[in-house]
Amino acid sequence: MKLEFPPLPRFKEDSEDWTYPMRREMQEILPGLFLGPYSSAMKSKLPVLQKCGITHIVCIRQNIEANFIKPNFQQLFRYLVLDIADNPVENIIRFFSVTKEFVDGSLQTGGKVLVHGNAGISRSAALVIAYIMETFGVKYRDAFTYVQERRFCINPNAGFVHQLQEYEAIYLAKLTIKMMSPLQIGRSLTLQPGTTGGLKRTYEEEDDFGSMQVTAAQEG
C-alpha cells in the first residue's frame, strides 16, 4: 500500500529576495497559508491583513505573553489561540493535529490563515513545518528548507526540531491506519501485538490535551 501525497507548490518566480526587515512581516508559505511575527497581526496591520485576504489566525503565546500578544480582531477573523512556550522541553507535537485541522478548515472554505507567535521564528515555524510534513508527506529537512526559502529567519529550537523529526513516523502510522480496512487492522493487531501498544501510547500522548490550553480567544 502506497500513501499518495499532493506535490508541494513550486516557489513563486516573482518572490522577493529576502531582506532583514522582512522578518517583521508575514510571508506566504503555501497558497493561503502565511507565517509571520506578532507585529504582522497588530492593530496597525489590519489593512495589510485584509488586503491579503486573511480570514483565520493561529495566535501562539504562553501565559506570560498574553498581555502583549493578543487576538486583536476577534470580530473580523476566526482565531485559534495556543498556549505554547518557546522552550526545548515543551511538548509541541500535541498541537500539530489541532493546528492542521484549523488550517485545513480555513483553506478548504476558501479562506487564508496567518500563523504567528512572537517573532515568527520558532514556535509558529515549527507548526507550519509540521503542517507541510503531514500534508505533503515530506521529511523534516525538506519541509524546513521549503519554509526557510520563504521566511529565511526561521529557527525552531532544538527540542522542537527533535520532535519534528520524530513526527514523521507518527503521522505516517496514523495515515496508514486510516487507509486500512477493519480486517487489515485486525490482522495487524494479531501479527504485530508488540507494535500496536507502542502506537497506542503514541496516539494517547499526542491526543492528551489535558494540559493544553486552546482558548476561544478571549480579549485579554
Q: What is shown here, in short?
A:
With 220 residues, the protein is α/β, with parallel strands linked by helices. Helices cover 41% and strands 12% of the residues.
Mean pLDDT: 85
Q: Which shape, going by the Cα principal axes?
A: globular
- Give, in order, the helices and strands: EEHEEHEHHHHHE
Number of strands: 6
User: Major sheet, described briefly?
Assistant: 6 strands, mixed
Q: Kindly report the oligomeric state of this protein.
A: single chain
Strand order of the largest sheet: 1-2-5-3-4-6
Distance between the termini: 49 Å
Look at the helices and sheets and give the structural class.
Answer: alpha/beta
Number of helices: 7
Low-confidence parts: 193-220
Radius of gyration: 18 Å
Helix content: 40-55%
How much of the sequence lies in strands comes to 5-15%
Structure description:
- This is Serine/threonine/tyrosine-interacting protein.
- Residues 25-173 form the Tyrosine-protein phosphatase domain.
- It holds the Pfam family DSPc.
- The protein has helices at 46-52, 96-108, 123-136, 140-148, 158-179, 182-191, 193-207; strands at 27-30, 33-36, 56-61, 78-83, 113-116, 214-215.
- By secondary structure, it is an alpha/beta fold.
- The protein has a 6-stranded mixed sheet, with helices on one face.
- 33% of the residues are buried.
- The chain has 7 helices and 6 strands; from the N terminus they run ββαββαβαααααβ.
- Strand 1 (27-30) and strand 2 form a beta hairpin.
- The termini are far apart.
